[in-house]
Amino acid sequence: MNEAVANRAVTVGPHSVGAGDRPFIVAELSGNHNGDLRRALAIVDAVADAGAHAVKLQTYTADTLTIDVDSPRFRIGDGHELWGGRSLYELYEQAHTPWDWHAPLFERARERGLVAFSSPFDPTAIGFLEALGAPAYKIASSELVDLPLIRLAAGTGKPLIISTGMANVGEIDAAVRAAREAGCEQLVVLGCTASYPAAPEDGNLRALPLLAETFDVPVGYSDHTPGIGVPIAAVALGACLIEKHVTLDRADGGVDSAFSLEPAELAALVVESERAWRSLGAARIGPRPGEREGLRFRRSLYVVEDVRAGEPVTDRNVRSIRPAGGLPPDAFESVCGRTFAGDVRRGTPVTWELF
Fold it and tell me: Sorted alphabetically, which keywords does the UniProt record give (predicted)?
């Protein structure tokens, strides 16, 4: 990753989001409220308690996403693991977050120190979210091809986060160009596999540095795999933002529960992703500051028996032991058979001056 991209950061609320910052963890509420505002508020509280940085909603209704038609084109394939055979309208009617919930959810998030923002799915959602003071917008993978929507979101001047599930390079390029031409100056592009749940082997994390270089942006990862292994690996490959769906308890069910984290898992993601980021260091080989004490205890040659002047060096009176301070172990062949110039006490590091 070139230095300019690596050093660029986006500001989301009070947070700097970039390669020089700890990973920005976004908890996606989605449909895991199960139709209950109290549960939705409890999820916000759990997200805050877990130490995440943001909670994200999805702002749509079934009627803003599709129409109520039950034909094969408007149904999810029968083979889908979670939603097979369901009509789009029915699924979105169940999963949507009522618009009159947004204000109390945003308010609870702010009270708990979280950034609250959303994915708008049509122009009316952007107008609604602007009135709520949303600090950023997320463009979902399926909406990446909706360039008018991207231009409208970008025109607000807010940071834009674009997810790239299913997209080819040309489609991503068109979306990025649309955002920039509409005035977006703060843009994050997310790697994503838009299957629910997603298999880890479909993660394609090695594309993250390529996304950063190709589009000159900081990158993140929107993850739908089970657990936290994939997003932590994404951090190692440059992801500065991680998005995961969150629920109170997978056993409670819900449209997204199968690929959502429970609060304890979210807390582990916050901790372990930051550890992964802190471990990256720089592209150089050599001892680290934390190894300074360890360097003192490398092996070297020491006198291990009291010797008199004129005695020869043997493998009985000179050995390779810890600590450092003497000649390197490989020097033994060069000193073996030499005679000591004076009396030497046991525990003396071997140096050329002894002979």
Answer: Transferase
